[in-house]
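We modelled each protein-ligand pair independently. The example shown here corresponds to the coenzyme A entry; the chain sequence is given first, followed by the ligand as SMILES.
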Amino acid sequence: MPSSASVPALSARDIHVWHATLAATPENLDGATQMLPAGEREKTALVASEAQRARLTLSRAWVRGILARYLNQPAPDIAIRRSPRGKPQVVPRDNDAPLHFSVSHAGDHMLVAITRSDDVGVDLERMTRLADVERIAARFFSRGEYDALLALPREQRADAFFRAWVRKEAVVKALGTGIATAFDAFTVSMGKDPQQEIDVTGITGVDRQRLWVRLLDIGRVDYLAAVAFSFPDAKVHHAEWK
Ligand SMILES: CC(C)(COP(=O)(O)OP(=O)(O)OC[C@H]1O[C@@H](n2cnc3c(N)ncnc32)[C@H](O)[C@@H]1OP(=O)(O)O)[C@@H](O)C(=O)NCCC(=O)NCCS
């Protein structure tokens, strides 16, 4: 996929995943601030920490900048609302085709996934040194996931844990159910298999039967990413937002 200079057509089976950096410079911060509507600029200005303020400004601006390309609309004019559980959604104009998106941040990086056809969820995780993945898995993972983790040699568990975690978060992002979700109500793979079909019927308040989740390689060794979507044969394209 080409860079941000042009955005190719987004067909019903396509998912575009944009990677952007959240490292602030005086120049990119100034440009980013101009991309926010006045109300969002005011809210952002209330954040006390300079670093947090810069990160929030860049993150919100890059989302708008990316959406603007697809909607052919100035970034500050795009109407974005939040679902009751916090999922951001584009408020469509009268003649616009629907556009769905999902956002994730980790470290100085963010991902924005875009699709036309249905809900999408993206997650990005920085692989940190976790002392006790078994304890965290016992709390959040399904029985099958927990058993699969413990069946692995100890030195392989941290990486496997993150592969499951990033998939689970992507699924939850696609469902839009947030922290209300029982994370142990569905089971994902810990493997390196690129795509998996997930039965989500066990999740309370969800009227779907299944989702598909795919690991993404964003070219950074410390990070893992996954995207979840509602149809089996998605074409996932990855590009850099500059
Ligand atoms: C809020 C949550 C959706 C993701 O949060 P996160 O992983 O901490 O942070 P991310 O950067 O990946 O995602 C944050 C973005 O998710 C989006 N988001 C917020 N609520 C959402 C929801 N209900 N559905 C989908 N997306 C949501 C927003 O775009 C938000 O960024 P923004 O506020 O800048 O727009 C949710 O999954 C969560 O809090 N999970 C709790 C963690 C947990 O217990 N995980 C166990 C998994 S094994």
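DSSP finds six helices and ten strands in the chain.
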